[in-house]
Design goal:
Layout (H helix, E strand, L loop, with lengths): L2 H14 L1 E13 L8 E16 L2 E5 L3 H12 L3 E14 L2 E15 L26 H4 L38 H104 L18 E6 L3 E10 L2 E6 L3 E6 L3 E6 L29
Antiparallel strand pairs: 1-4, 2-3, 2-5, 4-5, 6-7, 6-10, 7-8, 8-9
Helix pairs in contact: 1-4
């Protein structure tokens, strides 16, 4: 197997390595004194407090037992807990570590006041069990000195502890190392040194790979942050540009409306002045030379012959400077007297109907009158 493949396998195994375990901590009857106090059972409950790390950086830092107890009581609104069982579990991976304290219990609520001799209502959990002593610790401690015998007796000879080794005999002089043994020893040393070198290089390669990965991740995060800031700056610039354009458009719209209102006001003033001038002009009397064109009534159909055409229209009235007529399609208009030759009715006046012949007169009768019948 090549060295590169061994390094890849070591890195993969390090990345995938993880462990998890659950450890029971303690069990107790209650978290508060129950002697002489009545209570109501609320039901089972559970509380948990955890501490977590990502790449060694803590993201949750509270794994205390008191926090888990408070959480369990708050979940059911309990004043105390009974049948309390406390566990601790942990999860360890290459990137993520988590350790939690879990409380399983039954919540209760006291129905009366505690008696005077009762202990204060504080959390009365027993202490955690002590760690067991390391094996062989009792052998390492020196034996206690025995008391001297009374009466001035001679002290007993020290008794060797059981299992103690007898003093070794003087070592024999070492035999000279043969050439074959020396070759085997050198080969073993070279093999061990080569293994240590390979392990050291693999560890160095793993460390460099992790460092490169960390730098790539930092570069990626920095690039994403720079991209996000650039997009945010671009969005703000576009928003500012849009607002500026909107303000400019509103200003132009306001200016246009003001100009339109001014133009309409000027046009209205001009039309009003024209109307007043025309009314003042029309209010003047018709010259006597043109009275011949004004002998028709309003609404009468007439034919007005001008220098260029004949116009059949409805007579409206005569004004100071012309004849006002109303055409079917063009509406009301004025033809100046200077252009008019004649104004005639559209239909000649109908001739009066012939008179009916007179009936012959009844001859007068002579003689007495005949009386009328009743």
């Amino acid at each position: 197997m090549s060295a590169a493949r061994r390094i890849r396998l070591l890195i993969a195994s390090g990345l995938l390595a993880c462990s998890a375990c659950v450890t029971p901590l303690l069990m107790t009857d209650s978290s508060a004194p129950l002697v002489g106090r009545s209570y109501q059972v609320l039901g089972p409950t559970q509380g948990e407090s955890c501490i977590a790390r990502v790449l060694g950086i803590p993201i949750a830092t509270d794994a205390s037992l008191q926090t888990a107890l408070d959480q369990a009581k708050a979940r059911v609104g309990a004043e105390a807990l009974v049948e309390v069982v406390v566990d601790q579990w942990s999860l360890t991976t290459f990137f993520y570590d988590k350790q939690c304290t879990v409380v399983h219990a039954v919540g209760i609520r006291f129905s009366g006041e505690a008696p005077a001799e009762a202990a204060p209502a504080a959390t009365a959990l027993p202490a955690l069990p002590a760690l067991p002593a390391l094996p062989g610790a009792e052998l390492a401690a020196p034996p206690a000195p025995e008391p001297a015998p009374a009466g001035g007796a001679e002290p007993a000879e020290p008794v060797a502890p059981a299992g103690a080794a007898e003093p070794a005999a003087p070592a024999e002089p070492a035999k000279p190392e043969t050439r074959a043994e020396r070759r085997r020893r050198l080969a073993a040393e070279r093999k061990q040194k080569s293994a240590e070198t390979r392990a050291r290089k693999a560890e160095e390669a793993r460390r460099r790979a992790e460092e490169r990965k960390r730098k790539r991740e930092e570069a990626r995060l920095a690039k994403e942050e720079a991209k996000r800031k650039a997009e945010e700056a671009k969005r703000q610039e576009e928003e500012a540009k849009r607002k500026a354009e909107e303000g400019k458009r509103q200003e132009e719209e306001t200016k246009r409306k003001a100009e339109e209102a001014k133009r309409k006001a000027e046009e209205q003033a001009r039309l009003e002045a024209e109307r007043k001038r025309r009314e003042a002009e029309e209010a003047k009397p018709v010259p006597a030379a043109y009275q011949i064109f004004c002998k028709y009534k309003a609404g009468e159909k007439v034919i007005v012959e001008t220098k260029s055409e004949k116009v059949e229209a409805e007579f409206v009235k005569c004004v100071h400077f012309g004849v006002r007529i109303k055409k079917e399609k063009e509406g009301v208009g004025v033809i100046p007297f200077e252009q008019i030759w004649t104004v005639q009715p559209a239909q000649p006046a109908a001739a009066p109907p012939p008179a009916a012949p007179a009936e012959p007169a009844e001859p007068k009768r002579s003689g007495p009158a005949v009386p009328k019948s009743k």
